[in-house]
Write a structure and sequence with these properties.
Chain lengths: 330, 371
């Protein structure tokens, strides 16, 4: 029987699952991911996690509870940094410790630190450390990692072409064209783990697409463009997500086919509180592109979100039809 | 140019001494107050952490007093503090307030900007003068922290209640009227002697509580609703290892010179928190373990709502509570914190600690568990 490695379907999963899934499978392990988020998973997570954490972290606890009894290893890497001289949220760095000290009866956790902040070469070293949990064959680990990287790059290419992760699984979620008013481009800025988890964002993408919206996320903008714009900032943003979000918003302000910007924020997220505010100021100062925050937490009142989204899209369409006489501050 | 800087507990004393010595013009904003917090809350993003809001209020109040330049330190993350300077700059810009923000940042490679900023503040680049000032500033911040530590020891033991607070408070106000590091040092020394002359009861063995958590809210009495003096007056000796002088020495000077800081709490934190994750999380965990091993009666963790590193510590602290059988309470502070509710929790915690000690003395150790 092969070794079972559990990967909770939350946080880094959405950014990196092609990498890790392929990597562990190539090593001969069986990858068990938790189910898609359900109300039960969210409730379990909320109950066990500290109150102050943001909803994605609570959700992560729920996903761990969902698979912890079914696997031999839980894969919760300590993600301190995934790019040079940048960090992720401190909660990612402390995630294995949070889980270990909150949830009882866990299987062994693969909690290797991944930190590229100072040295990109530490990449292979951490990968080999992770692989050692499964096999001692270093050659195999290297080969598996290379295959995984190829898959990962494919995945990123696809996202940049506008194919969202959920499209890959069910290919029928196409754009609905609304009669008479065509397709509009709306940018949705948010952490991948809120963007691509359709339960926690209350089917945001589906709702937008049903209204004839073509979605552009910060993941679809190429790294070069983002870096080009982010370099103009007064102080370098030291969060990986922050640089991407601000860089892509600066880019979106310059191109004129973006008709609206939605900032998907999770309540209590420290990075969003700053980056969201800076983005809003940037958009308001330089353009009249409509901008809204959609803040999500565990109190999921779907009707309120629907109303705001509909009003936002209506406003944009009116602006299109009536030569931009409608206020952008709706 | 008229400088101003944010308040954080007693930081204003060493900074004042530094600016006095350099001969820079400056304005010290009024001590942290409700009005400052209100103004900051109004203009800062809703989910920003409390220190940003208070600091913004400081700047707005200082602006009214004629300040036109803000001096603030930077950082390189992942804690939000490192990006405060940009937030302040943008918020002030949108408010139409013409204030320049100077960030003292330890750069990764480009030291030119730092030198430029130092030149601006010091009004020249007289290395000898600057080094001497830095030395004096560090000394004063150490002395102030020592003085504060002394009040922690004397407060629970004083015979005439309120004496420590009276002397210490008047020191905090009077120091504003004194200029130059030399005079300030003298004043600190005098206050120290005054405190040492307070009549104390040497037989008392007070309860001991360790304070851990985020540096701003633990060090700034306004934000933690004067918890140290309240606990002290209830007859409890507090200890707070994270201090401003420690921060200046470890995070600014030693980091700039690539020296190693104090490794004791890192080692103690290791079984619970495997790596540095930013902010003061590692110190919080490490110091909690050290307090527990040292036989303290309880631990209080304080942090502002939404503080990313301290949320991690908060979820780890229950394990320390369990492993060492030491009560831990987390107090989370934001602009909505009501004094009555806050005090009730502290009082209940004190009662619990007192009861635990009584039971311990009569019935042997570990009878009444927190859990």
């Amino acid at each position: 029987m092969s070794i079972k490695v559990g990967i909770p379907k939350s946080l880094f999963y959405y950014q990196m699952y092609p990498l890790w899934n392929t990597f562990f499978e190539e090593l001969g392990a069986e990858v068990v991911t938790s189910r898609n988020t359900t109300k039960k998973i969210l409730d379990d997570g909320v109950r066990i996690c500290v109150d102050e954490a943001c909803v994605p972290v609570k959700l992560f606890h729920g996903h761990v509870l969902d698979i912890k009894d079914k696997v031999d290893f839980l894969f919760i890497p300590r993600l301190t940094s995934i790019s040079k001289s940048e960090y992720i949220c401190p909660k990612f760095g402390g995630l294995p410790d949070m889980i270990k000290n909150t949830i009882m009866g866990l299987p062994e956790i693969i909690d290797v630190e991944i930190n590229y902040r100072k040295d990109k070469n530490s990449e292979l070293a951490s990968i080999i450390k992770i692989g050692r949990f499964i096999t001692n064959n270093e050659m195999l680990i290297r080969r598996a990692y290379n295959t995984a990287l190829e898959k990962f790059n494919d995945y990123n290419d696809k996202i940049q072409k506008g194919i969202l992760p959920e499209d890959e699984k069910n290919r029928n979620s196409n754009l609905f064209v609304v009669k008479d008013s065509g397709i509009i481009n709306i940018a949705v800025i948010g952490h991948p783990y809120t963007l691509y988890d359709s339960y926690i964002n209350m089917n945001l993408f589906k709702k937008l697409r049903a209204n004839g919206v073509n979605i552009i996320t910060q993941e679809m903008i190429s790294e070069e463009i983002i870096n080009h714009h982010a370099a103009k900032l007064n102080k370098k943003v030291f969060w990986n997500f922050g640089r991407k979000a601000l860089g892509s918003i600066m880019h979106m302000i310059e191109r004129n086919d973006i008709k609206g910007i939605i900032y998907l924020m999770s309540f209590g997220c420290g990075i969003d509180s700053f980056i969201g505010d800076l983005s809003e100021r940037m958009v308001r100062r330089n353009t009249d592109i409509p901008f809204i925050y959609v803040t999500i937490d565990e109190h999921s009142g779907e009707a309120g979100v629907d109303t705001r989204l509909e009003a936002f899209i209506d406003m944009i369409r009116w602006r299109e039809n009536n030569e931009i006489n409608i206020s952008a501050y709706g | 140019m008229k400088l101003t800087f944010p308040h954080m507990g007693n930081t204003y004393i060493p900074v004042k001494a530094m600016l006095d010595d350099l001969g820079t013009q400056y304005v010290i904003p009024p001590f942290n107050n409700k009005k400052a917090l209100e103004m900051g809350t109004k203009h800062a993003p809703e989910l920003a952490c409390l220190p940003l809001k208070i600091n913004l209020g400081n700047f707005l109040q200082a602006h009214k007093m004629g300040a036109d330049t803000v001096l603030i330190t930077g950082g390189c993350g992942p804690c939000r503090f490192g990006y405060y300077c940009e937030m302040h700059r943008e918020i002030l810009k949108d408010l139409g307030i013409d204030m320049n923000v100077i960030t003292l940042d330890l750069p990764a490679n480009d030291y030119g900007k730092l030198i430029d900023n130092v030149k601006k503040i010091a009004g020249g680049l007289n290395i000898y003068k600057i080094l001497k000032t830095v030395k004096n500033t560090v000394e004063i911040s150490k002395m102030v922290d020592e003085l504060e530590k002394l009040t922690f020891k004397i407060r629970p033991r004083e015979i005439q209640k309120g004496m420590t607070d009276k002397i210490y408070k008047s020191f905090l106000y009077n120091v504003l009227k004194i200029n130059g590091s030399k005079a300030i040092k003298k004043h600190i020394e005098e206050t120290r002697n005054e405190l040492l002359n307070i009549e104390t009861d040497k037989t008392i063995k007070p309860l001991r509580v360790g304070i851990v958590g985020e540096i701003y809210t633990t060090n700034d009495p306004f934000s933690n609703l004067f918890i140290e003096s309240r606990l002290g007056n209830e007859g409890i000796e507090v200890a707070r290892p994270v201090t401003i002088s420690g921060w200046i020495i470890d995070h600014m000077i030693k980091k700039a010179l690539h020296l190693k800081g104090d490794e004791r709490n890192k080692k103690a934190a290791k079984p619970y928190l495997g790596a540095m994750i930013g902010g003061h999380s590692q110190e919080t965990i490490g110091n909690s373990v050290l307090f527990a091993k040292d036989g303290y009666d309880g631990i209080i963790q304080i942090f502002p709502l939404g503080c990313m590193p301290e949320i991690v510590s908060e979820s780890i602290l229950p394990s320390i509570e369990r492993d060492f059988k030491i009560p831990v309470m987390s107090l989370i502070i934001d602009e909505m914190t009501g004094e009555a509710g806050y005090m009730t929790r502290i009082e209940a915690f004190i009662d619990l600690l007192k009861r635990r000690r009584e039971v311990d003395t009569f019935e042997g150790k570990g009878m009444l568990s927190w859990n």
